[in-house]
Amino acid sequence: MSNPNSPNREFPLERTRNIGICAHIDAGKTTLTERILFYTGMIHRIGEVHDGAATTDWMEQEKERGITITSAAVTASWKQIKEEGVYKSREGENIRVNIIDTPGHVDFTAEVERSLRVLDGAIFVLCGVAGVQPQSETVYRQAEKYGVPRIAFVNKMDRTGANFENVVKDVRTKLGAPAFPILIPIGAEDSLIGQIDVVNQKAIIYSDDEKFGSKYTIRDLQGDEAAKGKAAYDELLDAVCSADDELGMLFLEEQPIGPVELKAGLRRAVIANKIIPMAGGSAFKNKGVQYLIDAVIDYLPGPLDIAPQKGSVVDEPENIIEAIPDDNGKFIALGFKLWSDKFGRLVFFRVYSGKVSKGDTIYNPRTRKSERVGRLIQIQASVHKDIECCYSGDIAALVGVKDVRTGDTFCDESLEVQLEPPTFPEPVISMAVEPKTKGDQEKMGNALQRLSEEDPTFFVKTDEETGQVIIAGMGELHLEILCDRLKREHKVETNTGKPQIAYRETLTKEADGEGKLVKQSGGRGQYGHVIIKVRPGEKGSGIVVENKVVGGTIPKEFINPAKAGCVEAALNGIIAGYPVIDMHIDLVDGSSHEVDSNENAFKMAAIFAVKDALKKAKCILLEPIMAVECSTPEDYQGDIMGDLNRRRGKIQGMDTRGTTAILRAEVPLAEMFGYSTAIRTLSSGRASYSMQPSHFEQVPQQIVDQIVEQRGGGKN
Questions:
Q1: 447 and 397 in one domain?
Q2: Total domains present in the chain
Q3: pTM
Q4: Is residue 288 part of a domain?
Q5: How far is CA 324 from CA 3, 128, 332, 376, 633, in A?
Q6: What strands lie across the sheet with 395-399, from one edge to the other?
Q7: Domain check: are 291 and 180 in the same one?
Q8: Which end of the chain has the smaller Cβ count within 10 Å, N or C?
Q9: Residue 189 sits in which domain range?
Q10: Mean pLDDT for back-to-back runs of 10 residues, the chain (716 residues)
């Protein structure tokens, strides 16, 4: 194979890592990112989240709330230090690490989704006390979906109640993950002093007096450490031999297997997603971070180690093109995030093949337009650094590109290829918003438009009946943050209505529908006639329209307008006007008029046909159900369970961790407003909870009647 690296690039592809740091809220992702930036020399002072000084939490709202809202991109470089008795796979080489710190709160799940779509590997952070939490599961499944290799870091091992073995067990049972320790904490809580390096069978002891733990010593394992290290080594060796054929052969042939062979086999197994190495430490107490970065270099893939991205040619979905990581190839990149700031509109992108320089022309196959690259910048959280060229495997941002959406492909003009965009969940909550002053109406409209372009889970629409502007998103916090951004960034003060639930409608049986538009009174008329069959679709399939017309009863040129009419009709169901989901529509027949038929007539006829079919298809109303997890001292368990039952909740299970009870329940979102105040009151402030969207379920009839009444009677 020829050399894929351009002679001008600073870090070759094999010395590049694109990683994300993701986890449940409050597991310590941002604190860990700060430590990594400090040890790699990117920052010279560690900022703490609780002080509002973290590098990657640069938005005002992040500093105030102590949470990550938007994923921040930073670039660092790391050199593995040569140490006596310890084998590292890339000693002395400068490795570029591009890091994306992602949010943990479920309301900002889109940020995690689009980050994982463009990353090659991830550090999956878990809390040493709480173990696997609801959002940990979501993030893990997101990484599974995109096939992202992971290392798990069990953080907060200095906290009371931290237990590394329990978290490993948790990961294996709750996530079904093939997790094996590679860096085991020595001690816990106040007595956390270091880590056992399982592969090298050494102890790393971190200095307490040295500021920020940058000094550590390496010694042989002693007493219990040796037994623990040996048991973990045997388990790891066995797992890697089973997962990796090459190492398995060495084992069967009774060839010597040392750290060199084991690390190479483990790296292959991690990249193939067959093993998840686990490390433990405390980012806040500066213990265990350096060896975690070494593990990232050793085991997580670079752009050359993973299968090339596949894209399909526009209008020819069967024609697949591979984006091979090679600076000399044709340019292919994916725009995964839009952001507006004082510099203008930024488009974050990841280059999969070729390179792009300032002044080049790039092509967007969705819009079929070309644009000139004015500025290229490398992002260091809120600091921007101009660069001349962005190579294969790099993450950077374009400034000033027009007409772009999240998930757009940029490529060479000769290609016409589209990479698979990230997918995003549907919003579950909405509310009305209006400007405090009439003069701000247009300004608010433009600002909301910009925010919805940046955030694919934020929707804006105008209610046709009331004329109100309705915003929809992933949760109360999500909408609160967006209204706060309207005020701060766009200088628009708003009044908001009470949050509303994003109900859905669906059908329960097959039905036929017929729609006709006939206006023939002198001159050019309107004639469209569509006959359809509808049936319940598979869960999550959305609206599928299939053309089953034979014999040309609906002319070919009117098929697409009829399909568009079907999709439009599904936006307003017949029970209470909510969108219809999971419906399969077959266009089966119709008729046309050689003079009076046109696209609009067939679109309208299809809308009438769908409405007609839905009236016969026994439609039901669905509501979003949340997976809720409550952590509470056992004394309050009964009160909290009783309260969840009153909220139409179904208890799914209970666990105990020491004196803490963990309740898992499924509760309708409609019953969860104001829950944070309720749970604090019930437990004297000692219980906490987290929730995330789970699925949609049928609404009980008495509640359907209330909803229909609130919406002004049925919408049919």
A1: no
A2: 5
A3: 0.70
A4: yes
A5: 12, 39, 9, 22, 53
A6: 369-372, 361-364, 409-411, 332-341, 344-353, 395-399, 375-380, 383-387
A7: yes
A8: N
A9: 13-299
A10: 78 88 73 79 52 42 42 75 90 86 57 76 90 78 85 92 92 91 91 92 83 77 92 95 92 89 94 95 88 93 89 81 88 82 75 90 88 81 77 86 82 85 75 84 85 79 75 79 80 82 90 90 81 91 89 90 93 89 93 88 94 93 89 88 93 82 90 82 80 86 84 57
How many Å apart are CA 17 and CA 120, to the nearest integer?
7
Angle at 194 between CA 189 and CA 200, to 5 degrees: 140
Q: According to the 3-state scheme, what is the secondary structure of 62-101?
A: HHHHCCCCCCEEEEEEEEECCECCECCCCECCEEEEEEEE
Specify the pLDDT at position 615: 93
pLDDT in the model for residue 515: 94
φ, ψ (nearest 5 deg) of residue 332: -140, 125
Same domain, 579 and 442: no
Strands (E), 128-241: 150-155, 179-186, 194-197, 202-206, 216-220
8-state DSSP, 532? E
Q: Give the whole-angstrom CA distance, residue 516 versus residue 334.
A: 44
**Cβ burial, residue 211 (10 Å; 0-12/13-18/19+):** exposed
- Per-residue buried b or exposed e for 1-23, using 16+ beta carbons within 10 Å of the residue's own CB: eeebbbeebebbbebbbbbbbbb
CA distance 554 to 550: 8
- Taking the C-alpha atoms of residue 23 and residue 153, their distance in angstroms, rounded to an integer, is 10
Of the residues 556, 583, 617, the one at which a domain ends: 617
Q: Are 393 and 467 a contacting pair, CB within 8 Å?
A: no
What H or E segment, with its residue span, contains residue 586?
Answer: strand 583-591
The answer to whether 304 and 13 have CB atoms below 8 angstroms apart is yes
Residue 376: give its domain's CATH number.
2.40.30.10
- Asked if residue 688 and residue 603 are part of one domain, the reply reads no
Q: Which of 515, 650, 506 is nearest to 579 (CA)?
A: 506
Q: Would residue 425 count as lying in a domain?
A: no
Residue 22 lies in a domain: yes
Both tokens of residue 81?
A: 């230090």
Are both 250 and 277 inside the same structural domain?
Answer: yes
CA angle at 683 for the pair 679 and 688, rounded to the nearest 5°? 55
Q: Give the span between the Cα atoms of 619 and 617, in whole angstroms.
A: 6
266 and 367 in a common domain: no
In a domain, 8, yes or no: no
Of 633, 613, 650, the closest CA to residue 687 belongs to 633
Contact yes or no for 52/31 (Cβ under 8 A): no
- Rounded alpha-carbon distances, angstroms, from residue 611 to 368, 515, 575, 607: 35, 8, 11, 6
Residue 609 sits in the same domain as residue 626: no
Pairing, β 332-341 against β 409-411: antiparallel
Count of CB atoms within 10 A of residue 53's CB?
13
- Choose the final residue of a domain: 249, 273, 299: 299
**Residues comprising the chain, all counted:** 716
Q: What is the pLDDT of residue 198?
A: 95
Beta bridge partners of 361: 372
Round to whole Å and give the CA distance between 128 and 33. Answer: 17
Q: How far is CA 544 from the centre of its chain?
A: 25
Radius of gyration of the chain (CA): 28
CATH code of the domain in which 133 resides:
3.40.50.300
3-state secondary structure string across 3-41: CCCCCCCCCCHHHEEEEEEEECCCCCHHHHHHHHHHHCC
> What is the C-alpha to C-alpha distance for residues 258 and 85, in angstroms, rounded to an integer?
12
- 228 with 294, same domain: the answer is yes
- Give the model's pLDDT for residue 342: 63
